User: Which sequence fits this backbone?
């Protein structure tokens, strides 16, 4: 009976060793995957930072043009409102 128990213990020890190796391999795979994911996220964040920097530079370069465009648009809008108001007042009364 002792031999039988020794065999069972040896089999169980072998199974435990196999599970440890699987766990170790799985841990290495997870670590590798997470490292790759972290690198991709970092690259994406750096790309987004560069895009934001480019947008800020564009806005700073074209700030005067945007102000002029807003001024012209506002003036044209005011003229349109005045003409429509005058036309409605003239033709509706």
Assistant:
């Amino acid at each position: 009976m002792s031999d039988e128990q020794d065999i069972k213990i040896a089999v169980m020890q072998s199974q435990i060793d196999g599970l440890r190796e699987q766990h170790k391999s799985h841990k290495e795979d997870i670590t590798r995957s997470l490292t790759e994911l972290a690198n991709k996220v970092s690259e994406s964040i750096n790309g987004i930072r560069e895009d934001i920097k480019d947008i800020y530079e564009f806005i700073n370069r074209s700030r005067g043009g945007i102000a002029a465009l807003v001024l012209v648009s506002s003036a044209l809008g005011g003229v349109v409102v005045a003409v429509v108001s005058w036309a409605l007042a003239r033709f509706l009364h």
